[in-house]
Amino acid sequence: MEFSGILSYVVSLAIMAGIYAIFCLGLNIQWGYTGLFNIGIAGFFCIGAYTSAMITTPMPSGIYAQYVHQIFGLNLPFIFGLLGAAIVCGIIALLIGIPTLRLGEDYLAIATLGIAETIRLIFNNEQWLANGPRGLMDMPQPFHNLVSPQNYNYIYLVITIIAMIIIYMAIEKAIRSPWGRVLRAIREDEGSASMSGKDIFNFKMQSLIFGSMVMGIGGALYAHYTKAISPSVFTPLYGTFIIWVMLMAGGSGNNKGAILGAYVIWGIWVGTKFVTDFLPYTLQSRAPYIRFLIIGILLEIILLYRPQGLMGEEKRISKLID
Amino acid sequence: MLEVKDVEKSFGGLKAVAGCTLSVQEGTITGLIGPNGAGKTTLFNIITGFLKPDKGEISFNGKRIDGLAPHQIYARKIYRTFQITREFAQMTVLENLMIMPYQQIGERIWNTWFRPKAVLMQEKEIKEKALEVLEFVELIELKDEYAGSLSGGQKKLLEIARSLMADPKLVLLDEPGAGINKTLMKKLVTKIEMLREERNITFLLIEHDMDLVMSLCNPVIVMSEGKKLAEGLPDEIKRNPQVLEAYLGGQYR
Q: What is the pLDDT of residues B141-174, one digit of tens each?
């Protein structure tokens, strides 16, 4: 492969890792700081992607209307797609939180796991909603007319990184304030936090909603990057499991760790693809499973030998005072 | 100050609290004793909103508080500690104190983004206060340690410190003396007495250590089988035959 080929490969890797880093940041609010066991990230991924796609594409007309069905198409600019994805994911999180957050943490886990699959299957089976299994295509890419299509990824990399940095800074600011202190107290001991005058349900809800909104933005960025989404993308394996591994690897309770974990694990995930390409043909078809096995083993190793991840939680979180 | 009236609570077939009626007078250190399983901790859990009573009323300064959630109880200026200390282990001692003040400006997420100055100002005030309290309970050197790494006795002191940050009128202490040595116990007793005198904080405390109860508490309430058995001065209680029967199994008669 010539140099420019490698470079464009690295750029696409960095974009995907950046999108995954945003999911990790969202999960870190929920799990890393609050202890909310959300194992339905794929659901928010899916909703975020579809919402942004439908906000930014026009309603199919003419001959297209016979082949492409979608419930709405607003044809608005990219930024509205991101915001819309965040808002819709926030509402979904609210609806999931109302019945589950008053119960023990296992119930949130069960609910999110189930709802994520339900969401995916609804998109798969309901043609009128978002074109069923064929999915949606041609989501607009911002600033695409500035450069030639083969160089567009550089622009998208910048967009992804800017989004990541803004989200990172917003989370850091909140986490290092009394707001984050309450979340961590809830993670440590709910009863004691409650006796310390904190409305547990309210704070858990805020954490769930904020984290899910961040995930929605991640989903939207994915949709506009690949320009084609279908329900088959949002499986528990790619949409939830790998994000958990990233956060565990990077360091739960550390936002820099969350980003680092996303880049490291995505690097390993993509890197192992190169290796499996050398396998004999009969094994190559099974390669994805071998790669997932490797990721799974990696998770085990991390949990056994470095449970705090590459970067653990810092001792002094509040930097507001000296 | 605190009135508990005919409170009942059952777990399945077991009546943990069975028509308990008692009251705590302002400015006292009231002891609550009784054999294991008498319903003392359950009563604490009911008063502080961790459990809802099946029957009965609880009022504080004339206002009903039964059925409120713990954070609402906290807002009424009642605080409690737990039998087994429940500090926030992965947070520093200082943070364990700084979290206590009610409804801080920086607990609203948009304030952390849009009013950082106001948040910072309040953080400084809270930190000042926390440092003072740590000075008082003599944990100041440990302020940057994880609360989880403190010794059992230090955790008890931390609980006292946390309750001070809550600025309460009534503090319920669940076995403050359990598992700590005599020296630390004396320190604890002095602190509690100081707080009652200087800050006019009322205490209701569950304790099994009779030396501590007899030296600190006045009056003492005895609970047995989910209700109040007796109430009186420590000396009276010591001699009350009913109490000896229930509490000591009668072997000291």
A: 999 999 999 988 899 889 999 999 998 999 999 9
Q: Are B90 and A181 inside 8 Å of each other by CB?
A: no
CB contact under 8 A, A191 and B70: yes
Q: Once rounded to an integer, what is the mean pLDDT over residues A263-287? A: 85
User: Phi, psi at residue A47, to the nearest 5°?
Assistant: -60, -45
Nearest chain A Cα to B88, which residue?
A188
pLDDT the model gives residue B251: 47
pLDDT tens for B7-31 read 999 998 888 999 999 999 999 999 9
Domain-embedded: residue A288: no
Smallest CA–CA distance from B100 into chain A, residue: A196
Report the mean per-residue pLDDT for chain A. 92
CB atoms within 10 A of CB B94: 23
Q: Which residue of A has its CA nearest to B165?
A: A196
Helices and strands in chain A, H and E counts: 15, 2
* CA distance to B84, B102, B117, B167, B212, per residue, from B121 (Å): 34, 16, 6, 20, 41
Any domain includes A38:
yes
- Domain assignment of residue A301, yes or no: no
CA distance B231 to B245: 15
The mean pLDDT of chain B is 90
All structural domains of chain B, each given as residue ranges with its CATH number in brackets, are 2-87+167-248 (3.40.50.300), 90-149 (no CATH)
Beta carbons of A196 and B105 less than 8 Å apart: no
pTM: 0.93
Residues on chain A touching B123 (C-beta within 8 angstroms): 178, 318, 320-321
Mean pLDDT of B60-80: 94
B75 at A interface, C-beta within 8 A: yes
**Number of domains observed in the structure of chain A:** 1
Question: What ipTM does this complex have?
Answer: 0.91
Whether the per-residue pLDDT at A289 is higher than 90: the answer is: no
A109 falls within a domain: yes
Question: A255-276 and A242-250 helices cross at what angle (nearest 10)?
Answer: 120
Domain boundaries, position A108: 3-236
Pick the residue of A33, A101, A166, A196 with the most B CBs within 10 A to test the interface with B by mutation: A196
Residue B129: CB partners within 8 Å, gap ≥ 6?
B101, B165
Q: Which residues contact B118 (CB under 8 A, 6 or more apart)?
A: B105, B111
Q: By the 8 A CB rule, do B160 and B141 touch?
A: no
